[in-house]
Design a protein that fits this description.
The protein is mostly helical. It has 2 domains: 99 residues, lambda repressor-like DNA-binding domains (434 Repressor (Amino-terminal Domain), Orthogonal Bundle); 30 residues. The protein contains 8 helices and no strands.
């Protein structure tokens, strides 16, 4: 079993924080509003959502009530087989990328044929960027 650095958030804390963030944004609640309902600062909510601070169970209950969901709804990411859990954690980690939720929301409103074209365009761009990076690394 490998040790986790004291400064590196645990992947489980990151996943739970991401689940809180996704639920909060889904219902259109600000960090400030969630913080007010839980009796903490919005900075504390930011730390929870980034996985920098662990969420105690009592705080998780407060958060779930404020988000109008069950605690288990926020913890669904931990259910399932190990491979599925790893994929869920990976997905939630990607969803923390600035702009990811906005992009996904806009993507969802596109017609299917436009979505397909956009995915192909992004794949092409990322393949080109990866090739350029590999070429530069080989030169250096």
């Amino acid at each position: 079993m490998s040790e986790v650095s004291a400064k590196t958030p645990d992947p489980m804390d990151i996943a739970l924080g991401a689940a809180v963030r996704i639920r909060r944004r889904t219902i259109g609640m600000s960090q400030e509003a969630l913080a007010d309902q839980c009796g903490v600062s919005f900075q504390q909510i930011q730390k929870y959502e980034n996985g920098a601070n662990r969420i105690s169970f009592s705080r998780l209950v407060q958060i779930s009530r404020a988000l109008r969901c069950r605690v288990t709804d926020l913890m669904d990411v931990f259910d399932g087989a190990d491979k599925e859990t790893a994929e869920d954690l990976d997905l939630l980690t990607h969803m923390r990328t600035p702009g990811a939720l906005e992009l996904l929301s806009a993507f969802e409103r596109l017609p299917p044929e436009v979505r397909s074209s956009l995915v192909n365009l992004v794949r092409t761009l990322t393949n080109q960027a990866a090739a350029a990076a590999a070429k530069e690394a080989a030169i250096a």
